[in-house]
């Protein structure tokens, strides 16, 4: 299943995308897609619905984050060896974790707003893993059974705030609009192998990131198991699993986002995102 939420920010309606790519209205079935919806029993119930019997939404308009109620948004750093190399950092012996704010999450095509004074804002196409069952000290063999599904994430990062301002990476990772998610949450049954997905990003029409989840240092099952040793993962939590090479920081000279730029990014089977970049005083974030 491809779950989607559409409509104005804060007023999104639940839907699913059928095999023909049409959005079908789930309003008659449930009020919203939230963390509870992502639990196995609830997904199993939804999967039994005959999609063709649900009303088609002719013009869904804006697409929101595909579920509400994400309790935490965990980032994994340097999880592709070639990206670690372009960042001038060693491949880590254990997964590098950081937290992105849940307030950075936004719809897949919403405007990206550069924070005030930002000169080094950068892109990162990533596979997002959405938790569907509580995971605490889960072993690798059972880790994927805790996953509800997958989505595209752009892990936008302000490199100066992340790397040059002292302390943790979080300063450069949690800015408003720095976490586009979606367009869909694709349930796990439709992604039999999360380690064989192509992922890519284009900046102003130029392909700039091209990779495969095959070259992750730590795969999805390892990451879910590993993170669950440090914090309990709950339904609705989101893990973004690191980016392949091609980020702005790795260019010589470095290349960063400026107002007017457009990013397009996607992952096999998980859909595409498209964001236009605005200066901090150019766009109203809450609209
Ligand atoms: Zn990242």
SSE blueprint and pairings:
Blueprint: E1 2-6, E2 13-17, E3 23-25, H1 40-47, E4 73-77, H2 81-86, E5 96-100, E6 105-106, E7 112-113, E8 121-122, E9 125-131, H3 140-143, E10 147-154, E11 157-158, H4 159-163, E12 179-180, E13 185-187, E14 198-203, E15 206-212, H5 220-227, E16 238-240, E17 262-267, E18 271-278
Parallel strand pairs: 4-16, 6-12, 7-18
Antiparallel strand pairs: 1-2, 1-13, 2-3, 4-5, 8-11, 9-10, 9-16, 10-13, 14-15, 14-17, 17-18
Bound molecules: zinc ion.
The site of zinc ion has 7 residues, from loops.
Summarize this structure as a short list of keywords or feature phrases.
287 residues, Fumarylacetoacetate hydrolase, domain 2, binds zinc ion
Sum this structure up briefly.
The chain is mostly beta strands and 287 residues long. The chain has a single domain, classed as Fumarylacetoacetate hydrolase, domain 2 (Alpha-Beta Complex), CATH 3.90.850.10.
């Amino acid at each position: 299943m491809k779950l989607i939420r559409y409509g104005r920010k804060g007023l999104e309606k639940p839907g699913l995308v059928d095999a023909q790519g049409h959005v079908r209205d789930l309003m008659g079935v449930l009020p919203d897609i939230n963390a509870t919806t992502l639990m196995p029993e609830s997904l199993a119930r939804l999967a039994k619905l005959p999609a063709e019997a649900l009303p088609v939404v002719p013009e869904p308009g804006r697409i929101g984050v595909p579920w509400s109620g994400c309790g935490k948004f965990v980032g994994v750093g340097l999880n592709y060896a070639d990206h670690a190399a372009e960042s001038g950092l060693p491949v880590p012996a254990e997964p590098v974790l950081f937290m992105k704010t849940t307030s950075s999450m936004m719809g897949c095509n919403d405007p990206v707003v550069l924070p005030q004074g930002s000169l080094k804002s950068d892109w990162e196409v990533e596979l997002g893993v959405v938790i569907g069952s509580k995971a605490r000290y889960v072993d690798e063999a059972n880790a994927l059974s805790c996953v509800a599904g997958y989505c595209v994430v752009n892990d936008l990062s302000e490199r100066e705030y992340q790397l040059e301002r002292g302390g943790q990476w979080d300063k450069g990772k949690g800015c408003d609009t720095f976490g586009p998610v979606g367009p869909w949450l694709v349930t796990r049954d439709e992604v039999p192998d999360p380690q064989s997905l192509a992922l890519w990003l284009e900046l102003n029409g130029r392909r700039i990131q091209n990779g495969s989840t095959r070259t992750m240092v730590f795969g999805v099952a390892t990451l879910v198991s590993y993170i669950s040793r440090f914090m309990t993962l709950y339904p609705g939590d989101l893990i973004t699993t690191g980016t392949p090479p091609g980020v702005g920081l790795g260019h010589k000279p470095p290349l960063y986002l400026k107002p007017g730029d457009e990013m397009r990014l996607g992952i096999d089977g998980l859909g595409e995102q498209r964001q236009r970049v605005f200066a901090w005083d150019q766009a109203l974030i809450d609209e």
